[in-house]
Amino acid sequence: MNLKEKLTLIKDNGYQAPAEPFPLVQEMINNIGSLDAELRDGLIYETLSHWIPDNVLTAHELEELLPVILDEEHLLYNLGESNTDSVFTRSFSMLLIPLLFTRHNASPFLSKKDIQQIKQCVFYSLREERDYRGYDEQKGWAHATAHAADALDELAQCPELDQNDLLTILNLVYDKMILAERIYSDGEDERMVRPVISVLNRKIIGQSYVEQWIQRFADVEKSPEFIPAFRQKNNIKNFLKSFYFRVKYYEVNIGLCPVIEETLYQVEKVYYA
Question: What is this structure's pTM?
Answer without folding.
Answer: 0.95
